[in-house]
Amino acid sequence: MTENKYIGNCHCGNIKFVFTSAKNETEFTPRTCSCSFCRRHGASYISDPEGRLELQIGNHDDVSFYQFGHKTCEFIICGKCGVDMMAISEIENKKYAVINIKTMLDHKFSTPGVNTLFDGETIEERLERRAQNWIGQVIINN
């Protein structure tokens, strides 16, 4: 199995990540979330439930963890440069994540993004969808 590594960071470099997936860039369909937070940040996300995300935080004091609405995930935002990096959701003591593609270095996704609308989901449906679709292995190194 070929492993593809997708590397990214915030603008100032305080938050960095390596996302490893068997999928290549043509196999991802970025998802543009319709929630007010993601719309305001212009974010589009990718994930692979079989993938692995290694997140490296330089100065933890310069990271903002933002929740709103149902508070079922945290957006990871650099408090120094303001970049929305990803969202992490903890479900049954396991972390799942999606990555904002605009934080990735030297990666182009050829598949056009799709708009998503999750307003009608119950909390249980939302968590189930994330557990099935988001990155299934999340490692946070402080």
Brief rundown of the structure:
This protein has 142 residues and is mainly β.
Describe the protein's topology.
Blueprint: E1 4-9, E2 15-21, E3 31-33, H1 36-41, E4 44-46, E5 52-57, E6 63-66, E7 74-78, E8 84-91, E9 94-100, E10 114-116, H2 123-133, E11 137-141
Parallel strand pairs: 3-10, 5-11
Antiparallel strand pairs: 1-2, 2-5, 3-4, 4-9, 6-7, 7-8, 8-9
Which structural traits does this protein have?
Metal Binding Protein, Guanine Nucleotide Exchange Factor, Chain A, mainly beta, 142 residues, seven-stranded mixed beta sheet, 2 helices, four-stranded mixed beta sheet
Number of helices: 2
**How much beta, percentage-wise?**
35-45%
- In terms of structural class, how would the helical and strand content be classed? mainly beta
What's the CATH C level?
Answer: Mainly Beta
Order of helices and strands: EEEHEEEEEEEHE
Helix content: 10-25%
Strand order within the widest beta sheet: 6-7-8-9-4-3-10
What's the total count of β strands? 11
Tell me the number of structural domains. 1
What can you tell me about this protein's structure?
The chain has 142 residues and is mainly β. The protein has one domain (4-141): Metal Binding Protein, Guanine Nucleotide Exchange Factor, Chain A, CATH 2.170.150. It is built from two helices and eleven strands, in the order E-E-E-H-E-E-E-E-E-E-E-H-E. A hairpin with a 5-residue loop joins strand 7 (74-78) and strand 8 (84-91). The relative contact order is 0.27. The model has no long low-confidence stretch (mean pLDDT 91).
